[in-house]
From TrEMBL:
Record-linked InterPro entries: CheY-like_superfamily, NreC/VraR/RcsB-like_REC, Sig_transdc_resp-reg_C-effctor, Sig_transdc_resp-reg_receiver, Tscrpt_reg_LuxR_C, WalR-like
Domain Response regulatory: 6-122
N-terminal signal peptide: none
Gene Ontology biological process: phosphorelay signal transduction system; regulation of DNA-templated transcription
Pfam families, A to Z: GerE, Response_reg
Organism from which the protein derives: Phytomonospora endophytica
Name listed for the protein in its UniProt record: DNA-binding NarL/FixJ family response regulator
GO MF assignments: DNA binding
Length: 221
């Protein structure tokens, strides 16, 4: 049996941390290796424990989840960050993804969605629910267009562009494969090339690159 996916829970509410721990440790392929009640503690715990995935609350004392995510991702380690919040429309969505978060979920999401987010993020794909993708695109459009560092799609092939658009619409690799009549392995290869060409950390950053480059608009996303 392969090693379990290790998880760090960062949330300032002890009850929520306990609830997440019970849920996660009920899965044979997942293991909680630590908890943190604020952003500073989360950064320190990542350095000492090297978890595969961090479940990161956004609004915490001492240091918020955005800054903690930035520091964790900037270190260049393999740890992935999945941001959890009660605010589906708050301003932190775009900020956390820009600094390197692999996913963004609402705290009231079904337990199965949370477990899936951990597994998908640990695999390197990252996860952003389609509804949040659409909100992200609308928010981006409302902020005035391409922003301070518009992405370039130079070098991206026509097929890769199709895959990128579908990623930005929230489709999984299997769903993209069905839509484009490709094998899942071929889609995975396209995703890997997109990550390299667009210098994106993960799938969530491909979403950002897609709408920064104008490949997706609020109407199409």
């Amino acid at each position: 049996m392969s090693e379990p996916i290790t998880v760090l829970i960062a949330d300032d509410q002890e009850l929520l941390r306990a609830s997440f721990r019970v849920l996660i440790e009920g899965e044979p392929d997942l293991r909680v290796v630590g908890e943190a009640a604020d952003g500073i503690a989360a950064v320190r715990a990542v350095r000492s424990l090297s978890p595969d995935v961090v479940l990161m609350d956004v609004r915490m004392p001492e240091m918020d989840g955005v800054e903690a995510t930035r520091l964790i991702c900037a270190a260049g380690d393999a740890t992935k960050v999945v941001v959890l919040t009660t605010f589906d429309l708050d301003e932190y969505l775009f900020a956390t993804l820009r600094v390197g978060a692999s996913g963004f979920l609402l705290k009231d999401c079904p337990p199965a969605d949370l477990l899936r987010a951990i597994r998908v993020s640990a695999s390197g794909e990252g996860l952003l629910a389609p509804a949040l993708t659409r909100r992200l695109i609308r928010e981006f459009a409302g902020s005035g267009g391409a922003g301070p560092r518009a992405a370039s799609l130079e070098g991206v092939t026509a097929r890769e562009h199709e895959v990128l658009v579908l990623i930005a619409r929230g489709l999984s690799n299997d769903e993209i494969a069905a839509r484009l009549y490709l094998s899942p392995a071929t889609v995975k290869s396209h995703v890997r090339r997109l990550l390299a060409k667009l210098r994106a950390r993960d799938r969530a950053q491909l979403v950002i690159a897609a709408y920064e480059a104008g490949a997706v608009t609020p109407a199409s996303g």
